[in-house]
Amino acid sequence: MTEKKYIVALDQGTTSSRAVVMDHDANIVSVSQREFEQIYPKPGWVEHDPMEIWASQSSTLVEVLAKADISSDQIAAIGITNQRETAIVWERETGKPIYNAIVWQCRRTADICEQLKRDGMEDYIRDNTGLVVDPYFSGTKVKWILDHVEGSRERAKRGELLFGTVDTWLIWKMTQGRVHVTD
Question: Using CA atoms, how far apart are residues 140 and 138, in angstroms rounded to an integer?
């Protein structure tokens, strides 16, 4: 049996994906990083191609293991840090995103947030989630996708779509669709 003595950190950030291999004493063994495209369809809107996120992150993982000259069976653990409130919706069956990832910086849902405040939902949301009403958070991004991508609300009701932040997306892709989780 191969000794599992390395830890991999995946850092999926706003402008690049990085992978780091550390030994058991937390010494850095190797690093790989890849930038990816920022998409600005309108002023105040920021998107990423989820497939490009996956390609950049998976390629850094392959490269960092090769640079360290280790195999995946020598990995004891993988940790993921990511751009948190960036939202992705994809097809459960195919894994195909139905829209670009809406990035945490995107302000397109400001009107939705203002309507929630006018409707008196601010206290309810804060009391039940601990969050303030702000376009930064994922909930209004999902609503925007369901409202603007044709047929998506009906597909979601039928259980055909999955949602997640980038950590969820990466875990789902790494497990070939077997695991849909978040922290």
Answer: 6
Domain spans of the chain, in order of start:
6-174
**Among the listed residues 143, 87, 82, 156, the one whose alpha carbon sits nearest the alpha carbon of residue 115:** 143
DSSP string, 157-180: HTT-EEEEEHHHHHHHHHTTTS--
Amino acid identity for residue 124 in this structure:
Y
Helix residue spans in 6-73 (DSSP H): 50-68
pLDDT in tens, 99-137: 999 999 999 999 999 999 999 999 999 999 999 999 999
pLDDT band at residue 1 using 50, 70 and 90 as cut-offs: low
Q: Is 115 helix (H, G, I), strand (E, B) or coil?
A: helix
Q: What six digits make up the tokens of 1? A: 């049996």
In degrees and rounded to multiples of 5, residue 111 shows phi and psi of: -65, -40
At the top level of CATH, which class does the domain 6-174 belong to?
alpha beta
